[in-house]
């Protein structure tokens, strides 16, 4: 289901989660990120596990940070009332993560995940967790890559294009991020849907949006090397390459799934 306003702030995502789950006395596993301890304690949470390999293991109040990948979640079977995630699923092996979520959720427990941009988006390269000259780059601020750069250009084409408008070392860094970085999972919308179906969890809601909430203003690149990308044609090409229907444009996703009651 398309939803133009799906790009939400972390506060809006958490508020939407609260409308669906009663956190009083609940045990929650958070995948990626770490909402403020004070905020979750106000809701009467019994235990909040933040599963994130990029943070240091720690315990503070009801929160415990578990510094391992979500695909290796070390929680007992049927031990949590809800799994919550904001802006993390585009970095994960979604199939393995949903299998872990299905395992640790109690019967009737809810998984809530809001994430993006995903690989099928116009900015699905998600330039992030990359540093250049001592500064962290961010796709919404450092709009260095043209629309559809990760899908419409091969490695050599993208390198030639980017070198026409920026230093070679920066261009090469961006090409590496698009084609070689292991930070992003490069999953299309259909891949997330398939993973959800295979997880054994029941669908409550799966919403998607193509809305871009910032302007892509790239450096001056050689216009002779730039392509006018037509999304429908790009989707057809990817469908042939992948051997399965593939949609482009979808950027942000809300996935709400429930473990069947015993």
TrEMBL record:
The record places domain Methyltransferase type at 32-112
UniProt GO molecular function? S-adenosylmethionine-dependent methyltransferase activity
Q: What domain of life?
A: Bacteria
Q: Name one GO biological process term.
A: methylation
One Pfam entry for this protein is Methyltransf_11
Tell me which stretches of the chain form a coiled coil: none
Q: Which UniProt keywords are given for this protein, alphabetically ordered?
A: Methyltransferase, Transferase
Protein name per its UniProtKB record: Methyltransferase domain-containing protein
Q: Where does this protein come from, organism-wise?
A: Saccharopolyspora kobensis
């Amino acid at each position: 289901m398309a939803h133009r306003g799906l790009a939400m702030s972390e506060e809006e995502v958490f508020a939407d989660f609260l409308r669906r789950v009663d956190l009083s006395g609940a045990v929650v596993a958070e995948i990626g990120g770490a909402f403020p301890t004070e905020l979750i304690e106000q809701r009467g949470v019994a235990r909040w596990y933040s599963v994130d390999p990029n943070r240091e293991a720690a315990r503070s109040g009801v929160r415990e940070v578990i510094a391992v990948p979500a695909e290796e979640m070390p929680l007992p079977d049927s031990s949590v009332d809800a799994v919550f995630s904001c802006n993390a699923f585009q970095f994960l092996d979604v199939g393995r993560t949903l299998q872990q979520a299905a395992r640790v959720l109690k019967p009737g427990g809810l998984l809530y995940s809001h994430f993006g941009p995903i690989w099928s988006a116009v900015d699905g390269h998600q330039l992030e967790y990359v540093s250049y000259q001592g500064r962290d780059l961010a796709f919404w601020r450092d709009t260095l890559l043209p629309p559809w750069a990760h899908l419409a250009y091969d490695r050599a084409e993208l390198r030639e294009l980017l070198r026409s408008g920026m230093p070679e070392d920066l261009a090469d860094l961006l090409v590496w991020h698009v084609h070689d970085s292991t930070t992003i999972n490069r999953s299309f919308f259909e891949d997330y849907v398939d993973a959800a179906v295979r997880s054994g969890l029941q669908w409550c809601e799966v919403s998607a949006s193509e809305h871009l909430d910032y302007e892509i203003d790239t450096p001056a690149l050689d216009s002779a090397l730039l392509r006018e990308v037509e999304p429908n044609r790009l989707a057809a090409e990817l469908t042939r390459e992948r051997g399965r229907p593939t949609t482009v444009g979808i950027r942000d996703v809300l996935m709400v799934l429930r473990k069947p009651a015993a």
